[in-house]
Amino acid sequence: MAKVSDLLRLPAFRGIRVLAGESGLLKKVEHVTVMEVPDIKRWLKGNDFLITSFYSVRKSEGAQCELIVELADTCCCIAVKTGQYVDDISEVVRNTADRCGLPLLEIPFHTAYIDLLVNAMNLIFEEENLNALTQAAQSY
Fold first, then answer.
1. How far apart are CA 129 and CA 127, in angstroms?
2. Which residues pair with 52 in a beta bridge?
């Protein structure tokens, strides 16, 4: 099963920084989702690698913290693209992610979402196929 730390080693993820929540880097990743609405939780499936610009919570540090707390049991990490709607991630928000054990990543402004999505999903599928082959081989 792919983990957050595995994704961070992919070339497409070069430049992404871990801002907080290092204790959760071994969480498994099963889905990749883009968030631009505040009520994202109902659309998540579990173990989601969440990519966002924080657009829907850009004006409130408190709302950013609430989002992290709300998603800590569903997401394996939150990756925030900075530079357009949020210039940086505050210490208060980083501390909230640390307390929740939820990796909080910073995506450089020049990185396209699609590059992260495609590469992450490829790794997830490769891991799933490898696990299926291993289980099939063991059953013989």
1. 5
2. 35, 80
Are 25 and 18 a contacting pair, CB within 8 Å? Answer: yes
Which residues are CB-neighbours of 51 under 8 A, at least 6 positions away?
Answer: 32, 33, 34, 35, 79, 81, 107, 113, 116, 117
| CB 50 within 8 Å of CB 68 | no
* pLDDT value for 131: 58
What pLDDT was estimated at residue 127? Answer: 77
The two structure tokens encoding residue 114: 């699609």
pLDDT of residue 111: 95
Rounded Cα distance between 115 and 112, Å, is 6
Assign 134 a pLDDT band (cuts: 50, 70, 90). low
